[in-house]
Design brief:
Helix content: 55-70%
Shape: globular
Largest sheet: none
Radius of gyration: 20 Å
Order of helices and strands: HHHHHHHHHHHHH
Structural class: mainly alpha
Number of helices: 13
Distance between the termini: 57 Å
């Protein structure tokens, strides 16, 4: 299953940083709204030019992919104008600031939300339905972050801050070790359910129940559980109104 992916990664890398970066924008073609029906092809990793200014700009430019790449789950469910990866992370960040929990390190939560999908600028939003094992997905994302930090940002103090923010919290995020990691994981789930509810309401998309089933029942933080219950109640009320419209 993995051989096509490995083959893609063995493609010759351009010696010209500008061409390598251009390839990273063109090969994957993940910014469309078309469902992903074939195996994902990963763009080549960026190669440093040796010029810190040029390489830093390359990092700034690749961040644009977070703004243009659509979230795979919505694309595959034919949602009109689906959100981007950065749309998702932005609302998570604001949600983190809305907590009233005095035991949470809120700035840390906000920063975790901002960077938790950063590697997707390189590898895209890999969905479970694509058949890529979790271990391989983690490897690809770690490789992308290493490339950002060392080839683009030259292991600068800023790069080290980003790496530390992504690496350790991402491990906590996966394992759920810290209260901040558990909270941010809940925000990830809640934000997805919130977005699904909005797509149901605004676009009458009727195939989004799996997004609720895989999110709201697994919320663990008491406050986010309250938010989830309020969202479920709102959704139920909207569904009842749609099923039993008031006579004109």
């Amino acid at each position: 299953m993995l051989s096509p992916l490995r083959l893609a990664r063995l493609l010759p890398q351009s010696r010209s940083p500008s061409k390598a970066l251009l390839s990273s924008f063109n090969i994957a073609q993940m910014s469309t709204d078309s469902p992903i029906t074939s195996k994902r092809v990963f763009p080549p990793l960026y190669q440093s030019s040796g010029d810190a200014s040029s390489d830093r700009l390359a990092f700034f430019h690749i961040l644009e992919k977070l703004k243009t790449q659509k979230r795979t789950g919505w694309v595959n469910h034919h949602v009109p104008g689906p959100e981007s990866i950065s749309d998702h992370m932005y609302r998570m960040s604001v949600l983190a600031m809305c907590t009233s929990d005095p035991d949470l390190d809120v700035p840390k939560c906000v920063m975790m939300a901002v960077v938790h999908d950063l590697a997707e600028a390189q590898v895209g939003d890999i969905a479970p339905q694509e058949g890529i094992p979790k271990a391989e997905k983690r490897r690809l994302e770690a490789e992308a972050m290493h490339n950002f930090v060392h080839e683009m940002l030259h292991d600068s103090p800023a790069a080290q801050r980003i790496e530390a923010l992504w690496k350790t919290p991402s491990q906590e995020y996966e394992k759920g070790d810290s209260k901040e990691a558990k909270f941010v994981k809940d925000l990830d789930r809640f934000e997805m359910a919130c977005q699904a509810s909005e797509y149901e309401r605004n676009h009458a998309v009727e195939t989004l129940q799996p997004f609720f089933d895989s999110s709201l029942p697994f919320l663990r933080h008491p406050e986010v559980q309250e938010w989830g219950q309020a969202l479920a109640d709102e959704r139920r009320k909207t569904q009842n109104q749609q099923s039993n419209p008031s006579p004109s």
